[in-house]
Amino acid sequence: MTKQNPDFEAKEAKPGGGLKQIFIVGPPNVGKSLIFNRLTGKNVSVSNYPGTTVEVSSGVSPNLPGFEIRDTPGAYSLIPITEEERVSREIILAHPDALFLHVVDAKNLRRMLPFTLELLELGRRVILVLNLMDEARRYGVVIDTEALGEALGIPVVATVATKGEGLDRLCAVIRDGVTALPPVPAIDYPPEVLQVLRQLVPSSTPLVPARIVSPDLLEKLPLVERTELELGLRLARQRYADGILSEVASFPAVSQTGFSSFLNRLTMNVWTAVPIALAVVYFGVYQFVGKFGAGTLVDFLENDIYETYITPPLTTFVERVIPSRTLQDLFVHDYGMFTLGLRYAVALILPIVGTFFLMFSVLEDSGYLPRLALLLDRVFKKLGLNGRAVIPIVLGFGCGTMATVVTRILETKRERIIATLLLGFAIPCSAQLGVVLAMVAQRREIFVAWLVVMVAVFMALGMIAAKRVPGRPPVFYLEIPPLRVPRLSNVLTKTYSRMYWYFVEIFPLFLAASVVIWLGTITGVFQIVIQAIQPVVQAMGLPPEAAHSLLFGFFRRDYGAAGLFDLMNHGRLNERQIFVSVLVISLFLPCVAMFAVMQKERGWRFAVGTSAAILVTATCVGISANQILRLLGWS
């Protein structure tokens, strides 16, 4: 049994008070969100934590009546580094009467148990959830959950969230009630650590570090003393955790042989990891999303389905029931909601988004993305970022709006600003990227030239931002999960939920854009704007019709890209014009949704200034590319 800290005694929860709130806490990549989703199903809402841009999901479970369940951001400790960890700390401190499900990776329990000890020191009611038990068993890990629970004085439940194993028992433990506060572990902290703490707090304050150590307190110490204090606390908790685990668990040495270990070495060694990354980009992005999604699927949906079975009867029906040509144009013909907005959203964008999110879900579930982050860390450091930024950057190829939100995982404000700049300037979203890839796939030379220019803009912008944006250099740390064979059910569920979210967001915008275009057309406003930008379009060497697509791009970049794609399919663009148009639309203004998120995350000044700079950059690059290609004789 755990020794009781003499400064505190176990107390009973107030009669009739009940535990109404449950918080799921723990580090990233251990299945917290999956357990949350398994418990709550679809009864979920998402909101920002007060005073921050970090989202906290909440929901209810039919198996746990009377409880509200909340999924908190990933955290490794109560001493925060990222904004997510700070939010998790504030949630834990603000809810002393709540029940906390501390979810950990069972095979890495030794490294994660110190956070459990912090929660117990803080006096919180805790259930320790040992997730990923299937992987732990595969590695030969053996844990006596009953003995571990007795040693800690808290319930311990083993789960495999991907299969739903152990969740019924978890619900039963919660329903049975966890009323008594667990014993506070008597960790043997070094005298020098306690001496430093005693100098920082009143003499009447009990020396229980988790209850008194805070970021504000640490800021009072010089850097060296602060580092030594944090290290002393971590080592003492680790020794205590090791003492418990030596009696209740066994962790065999991880074998460095076998196919899994061989693959792991391949993806971690730079000489083999780079070719693997290039292969992922080529087969995953270029072939699967660009060729199959934006080519085969789009052709099938647009030509074989939409243009054959949907557009003709819709047009006939509208022309029959609506006599006015002006009102007919609102629904059908060139810019109608059904023939333009609906067609773009369903036949062009949906298959591209679907194939990208399917690929992303496979990479995510396989554990490859953190390895890609490690590989790119050195490159990203030159851009003022670190390998952790690969997650929002890669996600940006799916949806820039979502990726801008995900920049919250980055440690400093400086990194979040730089990442948002890169997302806005040089990262096309999946819908836009798929259309662009379909256009550049006509000739390999166009694809290579486009890729070189985009990488050059990305690197140049990042290096300039790294020098001009103030702040301290980033520190890189990231959990590297084992490589796994993705579970088809999880991959399809994630893909469906992301497609549903994206389509629900994009579909109304496409219809709204069609209405705005219709209004602009019948009032003559668009014609005035199109005439005004014709000199710029002409300087880029593009046909006059491209002005319409660029104007549509102000509403959504993928909307504009789809318009250029139409021009290419109808033979209105030669190879030089294809190259110039994909460059311009790839570097074009952020869509309305992304602009709104940029304003929310970074403020009006940043959003407007960045958008203006992007517009100028796209215009200059387009004009310059056209002139250079003319001189080279490329038509």
Keywords:
single chain, two-stranded antiparallel ribbon, 6% strand, 7-stranded mixed beta sheet, alpha/beta, 635 residues, disordered N terminus, 27 helices, 2 domains, Rossmann fold, 9 strands
Average pLDDT rating: 81
From the N-terminal CA to the C-terminal CA, the straight-line distance is 80 Å
Helix/sheet category: alpha/beta
Can you list the strand order of the major beta sheet?
Answer: 2-3-4-1-5-6-8
Number of helices: 27
Number of domains: 2
Total number of strands: 9
Provide an overview of this structure:
- The protein has helices at residues 32-40, 83-94, 109-121, 133-138, 145-152, 167-176, 191-200, 209-212, 215-219, 223-248, 259-268, 270-321, 325-331, 337-366, 368-381, 390-396, 400-406, 413-426, 430-440, 444-468, 488-523, 525-539, 546-553, 557-569, 575-586, 592-602, 604-631, and strands spanning 21-25, 44-48, 55-59, 68-71, 99-105, 125-131, 142-143, 156-158, 249-250.
- It folds into two domains: 1-247, Rossmann fold (3-Layer(aba) Sandwich), CATH 3.40.50; 270-631, no CATH class.
- The chain is of the alpha/beta class.
- It has 27 helices and nine strands.
- The radius of gyration is 28 Å and the shape is elongated.
- The strands form two sheets. Strands 2-3-4-1-5-6-8 form a seven-stranded mixed sheet, with helices on both faces. The chain has a two-stranded antiparallel sheet with strand order 7-9.
- Helix 16 (390-396) packs antiparallel against helix 17 (400-406), helix 23 (546-553) packs antiparallel against helix 24 and helix 24 (557-569) packs antiparallel against helix 25.
